[in-house]
Queue: 2 jobs
Job 1
Amino acid sequence: MLKRFVLLTILLFSAPSMGFVVLIDPGHGGDEYGAVKTVRVKKGRKVKSERVYEKDLALSLAKKVKERLDPHYTTYLTRSFDRSVSLNERAEMADAVKADLFISIHFNSARDTSSHGFETYYLDNHADAAIKKVENIENKYLQGAEKVVNQILIDLVIQKTVSASRKLASEVHSQIKSKVEKKYKMKDRGIKPGLFYVLALSKRPGILIEAGFMSHHKEIWKLRRGAFLRQYAQSIADGVKEYLKGKTQKELPLF
Ligand SMILES: [Zn+2]
């Protein structure tokens, strides 16, 4: 009897939050490497060149986020191994699993190799030239004809999701700031609006994380560390939990 009561209590208390579905999206994959950085690593007595791919770092971080959210929500990855997935396929998955939130994970790269730090994006219009450079990198795998349709869709999605996405970005970013900024001496580059097609196509509240600059000669070493990725994943998970705390599905915008 007591066991049944305990079980019922657990179910009652866990039911509302377990109802949420979070889709975590590791950027790139397969032939699409994302950013690439060559580093020199010591192997025994030899020093060898090694290529680090954004697609691998993104998958590693995304899996860690999933592990941390799993006990609380229903979670999925848009890819769980190294394969190419189009932006449209990622968005279709959001519909298929009826995702409430969409979290896209990326690492940054810039021609200016002094750029460093972490930033969190949500879908919105803006006129910032520096942000357009990041958009160009992350949007480049969408075909020309699809872009025309998407301009109309983007406005509709922004209207419906922007306030939820901005709030989600703010909860996640403040967790990253408190857990990662000081500990790993990372620069806080802020919460920013961006026109990322993967966010627009997913049609739900979502964010795109740029967890650090692979092009920065010191930062790349931080990004490769398991401890850093675990801490960053914990921050994302805590931010999501903070955002969903006390919410019901009816309060989230859906198309
Ligand atoms: Zn990327």
Job 2
Amino acid sequence: MYNPKVVDYFMNPRNAGRIEDANAIGEVGNPTCGDVMKIYLKVDPKTEVIDDIKFETFGCAAAIATSSMITEMAKEKTLPEALKISNKDVADALGGLPAVKLHCSLLAKEGIQAAAADFYMKRDGVLPEGLTFPENCTSNGGGAEEERFVSEDSRSAE
Ligand code: FES
């Protein structure tokens, strides 16, 4: 079902885990399949460059592979640049996803969007024009929440 690149990003996820001193966190869920993704960002407040980014995803192989890929693509970009990464960009970078799994790449994009919105709300108290919290955002700028996630780190450990 998955091409070898997707399998690699699922089996050897990049940037899995959490950032303890993250200054923005976004959490999104897909109510249909139940998959949940949490994105942690460490953003330079002045330059808006993403110095570090990690994810915790409870979900299917494609959700983990797309989280993994989007964090690689977004790292060291500015937030406005990272927000331009489309779900198609992520799916293409993975060499394609099965049609029934394309929504998984949307979840990854929305995770970044939710975390970016969280950053701007904390820094400025308002969202920049054109940015909203995604509809399926479950954090909504509320900051850190307690563990309900299986991080890929813990899943693959041992
Ligand atoms: S099956 Fe829903 S995110 Fe993958």
